[in-house]
């Protein structure tokens, strides 16, 4: 059984996910930890559960999802993966921090591996299917764990909302198409772990999401 631990970090209230199973191997998705206090919260959980961090993955590279990249790569010496189409977003991390008045000076490390649509992410006894779901950002990925019935959706789908589409590379029609094609085709009971806000399910969003009904 694959478990998901959520932490809400940084001024953007971004959800960082630690996904792990009985083997104790884990993947960190979108580390948003922005300061020493949040670094410690993340690492304290990993130590308490005696997890072995095997990979860092970004669903997409907006600043709120990558603040902790440097910390995670340096502390756990792990592979860092994302979609190639997010490289320009990652490269604009420092200028974007300046734009928002956030005093971050250290850039994110560069990815060591790229993930393509329909790649399978394997760790421990867990498999997660990567789905290319652009529209909020140019090459946002969602990660579906069929065996445990959940998806990490980044900022693509939220409870009763969807990701904003006014940032560079965003497009409303593309986003709605991504959701209809790759998310709303999953079983209704699939739990959605979003980049912001509470969890939801595919079935609930099909019925209640005002942007998609
Ligand atoms: Zn975003
Ligand atoms: Zn976000």
Q: How would you describe this protein?
A:
The mean pLDDT is 97. This protein has a single domain, classed as Metallo-beta-lactamase, Chain A (4-Layer Sandwich). By secondary structure, it is of the alpha/beta class. The protein is globular, with a radius of gyration of 16 Å. The strands form three sheets. The protein has a six-stranded mixed β-sheet, covered by helices on one side. A six-stranded mixed β-sheet has the order 7-8-9-10-13-14. A two-stranded antiparallel ribbon has the order 11-12. The longest helix has 13 residues. It has seven helices and 14 strands. The structure holds zinc ion (2 copies). The site of one zinc ion has 5 residues, from loops.
The level 1 CATH classification is Alpha Beta
CATH architecture term = 4-Layer Sandwich
Mean pLDDT: 97
What is the general shape? globular
Which distinct ligands sit in these coordinates? Answer: zinc ion
How far apart lie the N and C ends?
A: 33 Å
Number of strands: 14
Give helix % range.
25-40%
> How does the major sheet shape up?
6 strands, mixed
Please indicate the percent range of residues in DSSP E strands (runs of 2 or more): 25-35%
Looking at CATH, which topology would you report? Metallo-beta-lactamase, Chain A
| Radius of gyration computed on alpha carbons | 16 Å
Low-confidence stretches: none
Main-sheet strand order equals 1-2-3-4-5-6
Total helical segments: 7
**The number of domains:** 1
- Written as H for each helix and E for each strand, in order along the chain, the element string is EEEHEHHEHHEEEEEEEHEEH
